[in-house]
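Exercise: predict the structure of this protein bound to zinc ion.
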Amino acid sequence: MLPLSPSFAQETLSEDEMYQKRFELYAKMEAVTQIPWYYFAGVDQYERNVRRVRKDIPKQTSIIGIYIKPEIWAGPLNPNSEDIHPATIQFFNGIGQDGNGDGKADLNDDEDLLYSFANYLQSYGTDEENLKIALWDYYKRDKTVALIMGHAKLFKVFDSIKLDKHVFPLPLHANYSYRNTWGDARGWGGRRMHEGTDIFANYGVPVRSTCYGVIEMKGWNKFGGWRIGIRDVNNTYHYFAHLNGFAKDLEIGQVVEPGQMIGSVGSSGYGPPGTSGKFPPHLHYGMYKDNGYNEWSFDPFPHLKSWERTERAEKRKR
Ligand SMILES: [Zn+2]
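Solution:
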């Protein structure tokens, strides 16, 4: 494989070539460590997502998104935190290893980086239970382990690392209306800020998954009524509330794809389970992000508009 300098990687590779290179690296590490490629993809995707939203980590400049702090790479007691000599790094218990066989353990080399992380994982074993323990010891956060495992599952099931397609939550031929209500006072249920967009439609209109994702939550809540939460590979949490009911056999932990029916429009919520009809039927749709520490909501309206536009354009083409 040709060595790729970080700047070369970012400036001249198309998106598809980037995915291809990434996948080749995962596959190579699977061959070396016997750990299935989708776990590497899961960790890498998680780290890339976190890097996009955090300011305390350098921006990603290469193909692999994993970030290892120099002092962890070189070893905490290593006087040279920029060390690239495998022997001294090993002596100081650093994680850094030479993955591409050039005699250097270079933190800025994608192959060295992924190989080092793969080696760390492999020291715990190659099965899912041991990988989870390795990830917990590394990140010290249950949520992070769950997110990585969720990403890995998506990559495995769809056998692809390119899972960024989105669609509008309702079928475009349905009768619906929505406007930007981000930050409005809630029409129903008190003073909390409105964290989402309300899409008004009739009872029973199908509600579809907006993304490739894992069902993270499904159930009743006093305000949201029957709700579903789906986590996609970009670490965005898609939230669907006030449903009339759920699609059959839908379970927490299950993967879904864009356009897959997950439930239907209703007016459930604002009371104990079963309460319905306290407001006009609509889908409350929200989007949330996670930065490795906490979650926050952002405005879904521009995304809804863009998915709707893209889907209409695709329909016209067909
Ligand atoms: Zn709402």
